[in-house]
Amino acid sequence: MFWIWTRFLVSVVGVLLTPGVHRASAIEVSTPKELTAVNGTDVRLKCTFKSSHPVSEKSVSVSWSFRPLGSGLEEQFFFYQEESFPPTSGLLKGHAVWSGNVLKNDGSITLTNVQSSFNGTYTCQVRNPPDVHGFTSELRLEVVQSVTLSEIGILAAAVGGAILLVLVVLTIVFAVRCFRIRHGDTGIELQDSKRASVCAKQEFMPISRLEKLEKDRLQDDLENRKLHEEDAHAKSDIKEPDA
Question: Higher-confidence residue: 143 or 69?
């Protein structure tokens, strides 16, 4: 009895330590934890399993159950063993089809034309005698409303628009720079020529001033000489009558 309880506790610990997978003696059942689907599209509920015993179409059975969001009531709606038995009534009638392959350890189904009322928890259960215990795994489905553009599409459009705007701005800046460079060369040449002429004037200005000063000095000398000569003639004219 002690060993039985020990094995049971070991199995429970294994289940708790492995998220999304419920283990028991020799079989494992795995599903995604969460799935998201757009309203009106199809979504595949993936369920895989591993068993230590050989699998065959006759030995393996797969059943799916559904628990609506906010409700504690769970009911089986799909069963497969050698052939599929989809729901004939209820919410999922006409929306569940077999898409697995037990020979490849796949017990998946596909929900078609999903609706917002399909939100909830789906449980996959697999049996493969002598593994006949209830080995299950759960996934949560969220159905979102369809939109004209997905969030990824909107993000891609925004990024593309930003890149295009940057390219346009860079093109304008490049064109303006080229225009300024082309017209700036002529301006620089004119400015350089003006600077050269100014420098030349500045260089020759001292010489011109010296020449002017020299001319002024010579002219002053001539005027002084004339004055002296006139004074001399005037004095000579005065002396002659006295004699």
Answer: 143
